[in-house]
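thought: fold this chain, then report.
action: predict
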Amino acid sequence: MKWFRTRDPSGGSSKCWWTGTGVLSLLLIGIPAEPATDPCHLASEQEGLLFPVERVDPDWRCRLGPIVNSSTTVGVIGPVQTPIAQGFYEYLLDRPPVIASLVQRLRIANFQASAKGPNQFWVNDGDGTQGLLTMVHDDQTTRIYHIDGYHEGTLFPLVRAKAVVFMKIRPVLTQERQAAVETTLVSYIRLDDRILSALFYILRPLVGGAVTRKIVRGFEVTNQLSTTIAQDPDRVAQEATSPPLFTPDELESLKTQLQSMRRPMPPPQPPHPAP
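observation:
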């Protein structure tokens, strides 16, 4: 599977017809209309992966459905392997402010995050994109997120969008038999502005990947931090404590996770002799 790909939400191939009439028509009428569907419908299969959408709160399903079913673009990132145990990886995913503090101290990224409520965080990638990230479902193998945010750039002063990110997590072992996770992200993005949506529909083959990467930047930062932790947990512990980045309880919790990185994996057991 490719590390990254985008597709036309309608399921067909994308072609750009660079004629004045075609461009003007799309800008005037917008994206081709999608078939009428139940706005609360949320399919369990997303890009070949199954998600327990029936466990999502009904009110949230009605908020996620229109984004997924009428998305401006769809992107898939993964599977990506990250050399960190699943428990530690989920610990980080549950604490975006911890991720932000560590990546800034370690000079990995200028990522920022602050808690706004239960499972809600305001995130800022430090490069013009920010918004409210809400985790609407999580279990041992899947997570589903809703993002409501905007991007300020040079091409367009302000672009508002909503997104739904489906995340699949699978524990694996590296070639060195160290604990790792393999993650795949499926993202659906819908621009709030109809004119911009129509323009993006034209430019999607050129810019679709870049837009998806902006939306899922926080997950990429998490993978970068996880790799740094796996390579040098002692350095991460030192940076977190000199001076302290967190409250005593938060720091103790982080130290416990970092200590687990120093424990070698048990050697593989020899195969049992055939009877």
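thought: worth noting. Helices lie at 20-29, 58-69, 86-93, 96-105, 194-215, 217-231, 233-241, 248-260.
final: tokens above.
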